[in-house]
Design a protein that fits this description.
The protein has two domains: about 190 residues, Fumarase/aspartase (N-terminal domain) (Fumarase C, Chain B, domain 1); about 280 residues, Fumarase/aspartase (Central domain) (Fumarase C, Chain A, domain 2, Up-down Bundle). The chain is elongated, with a radius of gyration of 26 Å. It is mainly alpha-helical and about 500 residues long. Strands 4-6-7 form a three-stranded antiparallel beta sheet.
Length: about 500
């Protein structure tokens, strides 16, 4: 990817995904500078004429009726940043923080927020030098913007916050020094423009989308490995079955399964068996995974539009300064909750497939995939761990967006809870990758137990990737490290190369 130039209108999910790998330099387009400067002139005219406009010369929230004198307008912005820095909990990950910086800069670049280009240049300089503000994960209810988290970002910009750089925690002026910056002074409206917005909610949801997509593609490969481990039927993946259901995600997923299930020695070996149908967790993978695929397609559409949106308040249109509610993160809360449900279902099905492999449904396998059942327990307790994680996810999948709590003396009387929806989505995904890693370990052990029979070329490639990380299962040993190491690699796309190239580009348009 070449240098990333922010116009406010052209940021893509693909660019956000690639940025985390390539870390290209980010700059402001000249068109964005002009649009931003025009909105700044409107703010200055408001101040000059003393026209009453929310957040420029009034208090905030329930204090909006308090008029602020001209000599206190700058102090108003600094007080806002300082008083709203009330976030708690562990800091957001570097990947999420980088995306917050990108999304905030791109939103401000649209030119409806009354903030100078110079302020956004400071933000981008921190990003380009990988000086990442420390943003606590908790403290936002996802309406009036992600105020507390973004206040911590703004503190770093004015030399009063904290940041991480090259493994070190920096504070105050040292944050700006690390990016070669001098301290700036906020002007009217600029503190509010930095704080008001849904960028934390959006960044969490985007990270959730990228991880859920990885998990879906991993689940397809691992599910196909399980099918081979169980000596299951290829018939449920026949294109004709899925064509008549007429659901695009299901059709796409079944195509990807067929790219893996190309005929194998294992498949040939059980053509005369009397098993008519496999259990649902195997037979219905295209239907369930297809529903996940369609869910992610919807989510990707919402998030792609959110990347180039303005979620500030008030907004400047020509000479008009309009108060509205674009800071409300309900659209992001909904899609994060939707992904949480989808990811939980991937885990539920994976846990069931692991259980199936341990039941001796395939007569070539031993109970619990143990080499000497009784003396050895095999994958008995690995499955218990998968069950525990799947159950935990069911609790976490309860929608955050159906909750609300009034704040700011009732002025902000309905909130989205989008940040919590995003945070718990990432917890679900962490669990999901562990559940999938347990299934993968069991599946490759089940295939290896059927040697010298071979699986398909694509699945043998996947097996080799997994065995490049974990040793063959030759007897009882501790599996926690194998589970953790494989889960980490699955979350980074370990098995994506086993699928057609178009699968790897899906949902990132």
């Amino acid at each position: 990817m070449n240098a990333l130039v922010l116009t406010g209108h052209d940021l893509t999910l693909k660019a956000l995904a690639e940025f985390e790998v390539q870390r290209t330099r980010v700059t402001l387009a000249e068109s964005a500078r002009r649009s931003m400067q025009a909105s700044v002139e409107v703010v200055r005219e408001v101040v000059r004429t003393r026209r009453v406009c929310y957040g420029i010369n009034t208090g905030f929230g329930a204090l909006a009726r308090q008029h602020i004198s001209d000599d206190q307008l700058v102090q108003l912005q600094y007080n806002l940043v300082r008083s709203h820095a009330c976030g708690v909990g562990e800091p957001l990950s570097p990947a999420v923080t980088r995306r917050i910086l990108l999304l905030k800069a791109n939103s401000l670049a649209i030119g409806n927020s009354g903030i100078r280009p110079e302020v956004v240049e400071v933000l981008l300089s921190l990003l380009n030098h990988d000086v990442l503000p420390v943003i606590p994960a908790k403290g936002s209810v996802g309406a009036s913007g992600d105020l507390a988290p973004l206040a911590h970002l703004a503190l770093a910009l004015i030399g009063e916050g904290e940041a991480e750089h090259k493994g070190q925690r920096l504070e105050g002026k040292a944050v700006l020094d690390a990016a070669g910056l001098t301290q700036i002074q906020l002007q009217a409206k600029e503190g509010l423009a930095l704080l008001n917005g849904t960028q934390m909610s959006a960044a969490l949801a985007i990270e959730g989308l990228l991880q859920t997509r990885n998990a879906l593609l991993s689940a397809i490969v691992i599910g196909a490995l399980t099918l081979e481990g169980l000596a299951g039927s290829y018939s449920p993946f026949d294109a004709r079955i899925h064509a008549v259901r007429n659901l695009p995600g299901q059709i796409q997923v079944s195509d990807w399964f067929r790219s893996l299930l190309t005929g194998s020695e294992i498949w040939q070996s059980h053509q005369g068996c009397d098993r008519v149908q496999d259990p649902y967790a195997v037979r219905c993978m295209p239907q369930v995974f297809g529903a996940v695929c369609d869910t992610l397609a919807h989510v990707a559409g919402v998030l792609a539009r959110e990347c180039n949106s303005v979620s500030d308040n008030p907004l400047i249109f020509g000479d008009d300064v309009l108060s509205g509610g674009n800071f409300h993160a309900e659209p992001l809360a909904f899609v994060a909750d939707f992904m949480a449900i989808a990811a939980t279902e991937l885990g539920n099905m994976s846990e069931r497939r692991t259980d199936l492999m341990l039941r001796k449904i395939n007569p070539r396998l031993e109970m619990f995939l143990a080499r000497a059942p009784g003396v050895e327990s095999g994958f008995m307790l690995a499955h218990v761990t998968a069950a525990a994680l799947a159950s935990e996810n069911k609790t976490l999948a309860h929608p955050a967006s159906v909750d609300t709590i009034p704040t700011s003396a009732g002025q902000e009387d309905h909130v989205s809870m989008a940040p919590w929806a995003g945070v718990k989505l990432l917890q679900i995904l962490e669990n999901l990758h562990r559940i999938l890693s347990i299934e993968a370990l069991a599946a490759v052990a089940a295939i290896e137990a059927q040697r010298p029979l071979r699986s398909t070329p694509g699945l043998e490639k996947a097996l080799a990737h997994i065995r490049g990380i974990t040793a063959a299962h030759t007897g009882d040993r501790r599996l926690d490290r194998d589970i953790g190491q494989l889960a980490a690699q699955l979350s980074r796309g370990l098995l994506m190369g086993c699928l057609p190239p178009e699968a790897n580009q899906s949902l990132l348009a």
